[in-house]
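Incident review: delayed structure delivery

Summary: a single-chain prediction request sat in the queue longer than the usual turnaround. Root cause was a stuck worker, restarted by the on-call engineer. No data loss occurred. The affected request and its eventual output are reproduced below so the record is complete for anyone auditing the incident later.

Affected input:
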Amino acid sequence: MPWQNNGGNGDRPNPWGGGGSGGRNEPPQFDDFIKKGQDQLKSAMPGGAGGVVLIVLVMIALWLASGLYRVETNEQGVVMRFGKYVDSTAPGLHWHLPYPIETVEVRGVTDEQTIEIGVRGASNRSESLMLTSDENIVDVRFNVVWRIADLGNYLFNLADPQQTVKSVAESVMRELVGKERITPIITTARGTLQSDALLEMQNILDTYESGITVLRVQIIESEAPDEVKDAFLDVQRAEADQQRLMNEAEQYRNRIIPEAKGRAQQLVNQAEAYKAEVVARATGESARFLSVYEQYVAAKDVTRKRLYLETMEEILAGMDKIVIDGDAGSGVVPYLPLDQLTKKKSEGEE
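Output delivered after worker restart:
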């Protein structure tokens, strides 16, 4: 038994030191109990009260030392006092007021994080379906790669950083796709979309003071939805044929127009040359006529006879000629073979 019987009355004694008699129990003396405990504690410690002080000082020193913390080169630290932001700390050894006054949050800020939007097999596939400027639907799947730039803003200005980045990325991509036609989006405009989306996302996140840096926007795939892909490919082929025919027509135009201009210029040049020739000939003929006319006025008979002879010489130049003197009489006809003389002269020159 934990408590011994006192006498034969069968009554259990008071465990607080007040033994009963005649069945009467006294209330416990709490002051005596506390005093007795203090005495026992003092007797157990070396040096009495000085030992208590030493232990208290050691405990305080350990408590203060618990405020030491290290931030690595790829991390940032955030100090919070009773849960409120106080300061951001760079890599190195630091100290803060120990718990529960201040706490510190240390996270890596160089680690890249990726958010996928519109990936195949996702439950919400509609997030990748976007409307283009020519009222077509395009399926755009892309990734956003980002990291923490300012841990303080990241922790205290965003309730859900992951969802915020995703919502901003989807909103920006929808806006950019809505300004483009579907053909460039699925062919040549991917690079432009990626760079424009990165800049626009960063601007929006900076206005939120999110403490996030967007590193890359990567378009994985952009194509027409599966339900209309075959029809769209037919349209795309028709547009390609149209563009090819337009290019061929443009090449023909570029070839035929210079040729036509060259021929036109040639005709103009020939006309100008003919004009100059006709004018020059007419001017010469006019000058010659005026010269003859002046000679005719000065000596009419001589000029008339000279013109007659020149004209006859020109008319009879290629003909066989016989000259008969009309005044020679009817008996003897003088004969002068001019054609033979001309022929002999020509043979002698040869």
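Verification: Confidence is low (pLDDT under 50) at residues 1-25.
Action items: add queue-age alerting; document worker restart procedure.
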